[in-house]
Amino acid sequence: MPSVFVPKETRPGETRVAASPETAKRLVQAKLALAVETGAGLAAGFADQAYASAGARIVGPEGWTSELVLKVQPPTADEAARLASGAMLVSFLQPHRELELVGVLRARGVTALAMELVPRISRAQSMDALSSQATVAGYKAVLLGAVHLRKMCPLLMTAAGTVQPARVVVFGAGVAGLMAIATARRLGCKVEATDVRMAAKEQVESLGATFISVPGAADMEGAGGYAKEQSAEFLARQREEVAKRVAEADLVITTAQVPGKTAPRLVDQAMVRSMKPGAVIVDLAVESGGNCALSELGKVVEREGVTIVGLANLPASVPQHASELYAKNVLALVKLFLDKEGKLAPDWTDEVLAGCRLTHAGEIHHAPTAQALAAGKSA
Known about the structure:
The protein has helices at residues 21-29, 48-53, 77-82, 99-107, 129-148, 175-186, 200-206, 232-248, 269-274, 319-336, 351-356, 367-378; strands at residues 3-6, 33-37, 57-59, 68-70, 88-91, 111-114, 156-158, 161-163, 167-171, 190-194, 210-211, 251-254, 280-283, 300-303, 306-309, 357-360, 363-364.
């Protein structure tokens, strides 16, 4: 019976956990010997007893020697050193930022499956952790914006007069952007959104928002539904078209990111300066460089009379539901490489497993990461 370990996350600010009591029960039912580190789920609202009731053992750090380790954040250097040679690891691994870690995993012969590399294809939707966590981030972004606004969000008609709805502009209509649009609409805001993919227009309008069209957007969708990296010419046209909406907005939410690359700069200082005093910007791309020129990672700052929210890892601020969603993504992936006897038997001809395989048998299987690591060694 393969041993599986769910550790307590140790990265600062991380409150999520890679298994919920519900998925723990299903892992045990799949004939896995599940161990959960003491207190692993407490920050997400899951007590040790809930895991024990699901059939898991509650253990200490000795669980790191298990055959399969399930995590949220990339392991630290100390944690990676505890992994058994030949073990499997399922986690977000941020390979473009964690090259040193990738080298350690390769050297230790760890088979590492990166949740952010799961292909965005129909049969892998249940494993798409990027989308599940972006849903949480988009929701929380609007709530943070509403908290920092100096006005209310909905249209109100009262005996004292009419309160006009807050005006919201959303950059990016991917999963996070669409959830931000839907949440802002539920709060009664008037919402406009822009995206480089014309395919997003129908989705934006279906949520009751107005789509801001930008010339040249039709050819900006890349493989898997991701946006391509935009040209300087396109970004200039986008800024010109959107700038007047930003100037009128009470709340701007930016979500535009390109996997493995620095986030595009969409809101410059001049645009911030044009906004009304008391307006708010929530930058969901702050961890990858920021869509707003004045965002500061991990901080809420006031610049040019505008409050700019650059808080990182918003899913961790809603840890219960974020963990439940992520745990289901992880469970779906794990079940994909279990055989009928419950043994770990990944089929590397499977496009999902092959797509998210970062390291295996002492090799790096994600070409961009292998190239980056080689370039770093030769520099």
